[in-house]
Amino acid sequence: MTPLTHRLSRLAAIGVLAIAVAGCSSMGAQNPSGSLRPVNAVADGADARLMLKGADVVAYFTQGRFTQGSPQFRSVHEGVTFRFASAEHKALFDADPKKYLPQFGGYCTNGITYAIPWGGDADSWSMIDGKLYIFGGQASKDAFELDVPGNLKLANEYWAGEVSGTNSFWQRGKRLVFRVPHYKSGEELAKMVAEAKAKKP
């Protein structure tokens, strides 16, 4: 079997798996029919698409910290539910939702630099030029911060040109098989981060 044939077989298997799980809640939660697609959302109770497991997206801007929202204060924007810690935060969001939306659908920003919509922990985040970016943990954030301008440029290009509007499961599977030219494994990134930290005084 040639390398190309092997890769195509893997992609076909991923496609079959994606179809098999089409009815699962995570597939539906991450792929609403509105303009926010794909999104880092989960099904939770009556909320079919809850952004960032209910994190209050306004709190990052007003309090500079991660805060869990409450089902008591919720808004639905483009088919996605957002929860807030207070009525004041809900009102701020309702007045200007786009201002508070996490970039790249709330997925790990470092993952989007590889065109992979995956991960994203609400308590691992950064504000860059007044915009909210979510990461898949401190290691992912550290890797992204090795070259913020360069990585942000890549993420914006992949999101606009390839990821936005797609099915998260299909896009993820495609780019785990057909990797971008600059792809780095978790081990490679960890080594680069360690080397960068060792050079700091």
In a few lines, what is going on in this structure?
It is built from ten helices and six strands, in the order ααββαββαααββαααα. It has 201 residues and is α+β, with helices and mostly antiparallel strands.
**H/E element sequence:** HHEEHEEHHHEEHHHH
Which structural category fits the helices and strands? Answer: alpha+beta
**What is the average per-residue confidence, as pLDDT, rounded to a whole number?**
90
Largest sheet: 2 strands, antiparallel
Question: With helices defined by DSSP (H or I, 4 residues minimum), what is the helix count?
Answer: 10
User: What spatial form do the alpha-carbon principal axes imply?
Assistant: globular
Give the N-to-C terminal Cα separation.
Answer: 51 Å
What's the number of extended β-strand segments? 6
Helicity, in percent? 40-55%
Please supply descriptive tags for the structure shown above.
201 residues; alpha+beta; two-stranded antiparallel ribbon; two-stranded antiparallel sheet; 10 helices; globular
Characterization of the model:
The chain has one domain (13-199). A two-stranded antiparallel sheet has the order 1-2. It is of the alpha+beta class and 201 residues long. It contains 10 helices and 6 strands. The protein starts with a helix and ends with a helix. The model is unreliable at 15-24 (pLDDT under 50).
Protein topology:
Blueprint: H1 3-20, H2 25-30, E1 41-44, E2 47-51, H3 57-62, E3 70-77, E4 80-84, H4 87-95, H5 97-100, H6 109-112, E5 121-128, E6 131-135, H7 138-144, H8 148-163, H9 168-177, H10 186-199
Antiparallel strand pairs: 1-2, 3-4, 5-6
Helix pairs in contact: 1-9, 7-10
